[in-house]
Fold:
Amino acid sequence: TFVLRLTSFPDGHKAEDQPEGTNVAKYFDRGWCYTEQSWASLTKSGNLSLDLGKMRAGVEYDYCSLVDDCRKDGGRRPPLLPSAFAAELEKKSFTNGKDDKPLVKGLYEAAFKEQFGKATELNYRELGWGDAE
Structure:
């Protein structure tokens, strides 16, 4: 299964030009977007977790070039321990008007334990991670 994220508006589209009522909060500030990205970062293969916000205008893509552009420079983040996820989640907002943070923290911790509990191999090659990651 592919995970496709659109972390920025495509070239030529601006938040202020969107119809009234459109959620224009930045992708990385949204609680559910952050959570879904974090789930995908647990054990998903790097070539199956792509950030389409990294596509370049005017480029005609084939599968290989799309994967190359959309997984580099943080296209796929390293997995977080549940405590690190919870700390970062505190900086996010949920636009549904509810405080989903306690629910989401529990869901992430359960997913973390399940995914790493059954993983037999973790492949984090060619993701552009440095020492900090």
Summary: The longest helix spans residues 101-118.
